[in-house]
Automatic annotation (TrEMBL):
Source organism of this protein record: Lysinibacillus xylanilyticus
Keywords assigned: DNA-binding, Transcription, Transcription regulation
Database matches in Pfam families: FCD, GntR
UniProt protein name: GntR family transcriptional regulator
Keyword Iron set for record: no
SUPFAM superfamilies found in the cross-reference section: GntR ligand-binding domain-like, Winged helix' DNA-binding domain
Segments forming domain HTH gntR-type: 4-71
Signal peptide positions on this chain: none
Domain of life the protein comes from: Bacteria
InterPro entries assigned to the protein according to its UniProt record, in alphabetical order: GntR_C, TF_FadR/GntR_C, Tscrpt_reg_HTH_GntR, WH-like_DNA-bd_sf, WH_DNA-bd_sf
């Protein structure tokens, strides 16, 4: 049990470091460095890295270290196409099922995003962007949709270009989120689809 716990801890801590952008400058790390940073022995670190390699976050290069993998243009396009297909498909059911409490949560996320703009906190802003879209998907209620979209967002976060591109667009994203919410509140499925599609395509 202890070994499993250490492996899970190592997995989540390393993934968080990737998502947080800790390796953006070098693009590399090592088992020894990760073990020292996390205070965890090499065995659970290696198990965690193998799992992250299977998920496409890293590449283990024998005798050289750990390469942090980004996404090429084709992979980015595929991920956005999948996002678009899943989220657009869910909109009619979301419009019909969403509650006042869920709308309130979405609006609170938008307000928190505005605070991030004031403090120039791009990382927290993007985490809230993920929370906004996952909250919409949770209204739909399909656990596979939620897991797939979570995986997509995590992979996008691991790409250095994602951060550089987003920091210039965050104010526009807030406006687009507000327009999506207004369409959903009005029970206007066609407009909600239009606003969401525009938002994702702009990404």
């Amino acid at each position: 049990m202890k070994g499993t716990t250490l492996q899970e801890t190592a997995y989540h801590e390393i993934k968080n470091k990737i998502i947080r952008g800790d390796f953006l400058e070098s693009g590399f790390t090592s088992q020894n460095q990760l073990a020292a940073d996390l205070g965890i022995s090499r065995t659970p670190i290696m198990t965690a890295l193998q799992r992250l390699q299977n998920e496409g976050f890293v590449k283990i290069i024998s005798n050289h270290g750990i390469q942090i993998l980004g996404l090429d243009v084709h992979e980015l396009e595929e991920m956005y196409e999948l996002r678009l297909a899943l989220e657009i498909f869910a909109i009619p059911k979301i419009v019909n099922l969403v509650t006042a409490e869920q709308i309130e949560i979405l609006e609170e996320i938008i307000q928190d995003q505005k605070k991030c703009v004031e403090h120039n906190d791009i990382l927290q802003f993007l985490k809230l962007d993920s929370a906004f879209h996952l909250q919409l998907t949770e209204v739909y209620g399909n656990s596979l949709f939620i897991q797939t979209l979570t995986n997509i967002r995590e992979r996008l976060f691991s790409n250095p270009y994602y951060f550089r591109r987003k920091e210039y667009q965050i104010s526009r994203y807030i406006k687009e989120h507000e327009q999506i919410i207004e369409a959903i509140k009005s029970k206007d499925i066609r407009q909600a689809i239009k606003e969401l599609e525009t938002h994702i395509v702009n990404g």
